[in-house]
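Please, structure for the following, as tokens.
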Amino acid sequence: MSSDVHLIVGLGNAGPEYVATRHNLGFMVVDHLAAQAGTGFKPQASLYAQVSALRLGMLPGGVPGPRVILAKSLGFMNESGGPVAAVADYYGIDTERIVIVHDDLDLPFGDVRLKLGGGTGGHNGLKSIQRALGGPGFLRVRCGIGRPPGRMNPADYVLHGVTAANRPALDQEVARAADAVTLLVQQGLAAAQLKYHTKPESVRPKLPRDHRPPKNGAGNRSNNKKADDAGPRRPADAADAEPRPGMEPTE
């Protein structure tokens, strides 16, 4: 495969118990891209990943978009580096053409930001990928999930799903992030940043109830838990959601 192909990796935890959790937003975005193309994923055990090869979107004049490989790990998020490196090596894709899509506690819910490189902010999935690739020189699409309400543990927060009433707002963010990935691959980082870093406030999805800060700064742990669906057990990689000293600035 030629060097003009991008590898788009959605981060998340494999397993049905994690499908609808906030931490799996990256999985949701690449699933959305595959669905738009009318295709799905095929597991490749040797790469420890599910992959899908497709053309991303349409160019002017009805020309099929760029060729990409979508990928999701078959393991936990803190083990993402091995599958990412294996898929990139198998398809001959350079690090600067790898796009990592992930949830981000440090961005408000509904925000989408794009960058090349940068620190991990304590995110164990990103740490694993940097170790496996030998540095941070890959592209990132950061999908905001906001901070947890009240005194809720961030590790618990990211491993809970939103309520059925709030699912439309999450779906809207997934669609926006998928569009951001498409623009990034088709027109480049600068064009994507120009659109998604300067969007009008009206474009941001309405903040769901379980993302709104408590009134007067007071949190009610019991009520906050009722705002979420019951979450699965916390996997080892949930440590990447703990409060992080020296967080990178929001871009």
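The domain at 6-241 is CATH 3.40.50.1470 (Rossmann fold). The chain has a mean pLDDT of 84.
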